[in-house]
Design a protein that fits this description.
Layout lengths: L2 H18 L26 H15 L24
């Protein structure tokens, strides 16, 4: 079990139940998933910036991030379809 999930179940759930006076434990909100997102503006100029950001996000989350490619070209953002964003 991850540290965050363990802390939520032991500490946060009890505090929420006490604060909001929930009578049923099923009324307490659950954390279903956590999403970490990063937009890289300088990726179109510098290819090494993508790898640096991937490494930082991997260290932060403990998982390898998914690199998304642009589906459409957007001229205002100087973005072409297929470029990494």
């Amino acid at each position: 079990m991850s540290r965050l999930k363990k802390r939520y179940q032991e500490v946060v759930k009890a505090a929420l139940q006490e604060k909001f006076a929930f009578t049923n434990p099923m009324m307490i909100p659950k954390v279903l998933k956590i999403v970490i997102n990063m937009g890289i503006a300088e990726a179109s100029k510098d290819k090494n910036a993508i790898q640096d950001c991937v490494n930082e996000l991997a260290q932060l989350s403990g998982q390898k991030p998914v690199i998304t490619k642009a589906k459409k070209a957007i001229s205002n953002f100087k973005l072409r379809s297929g470029h990494l964003i």
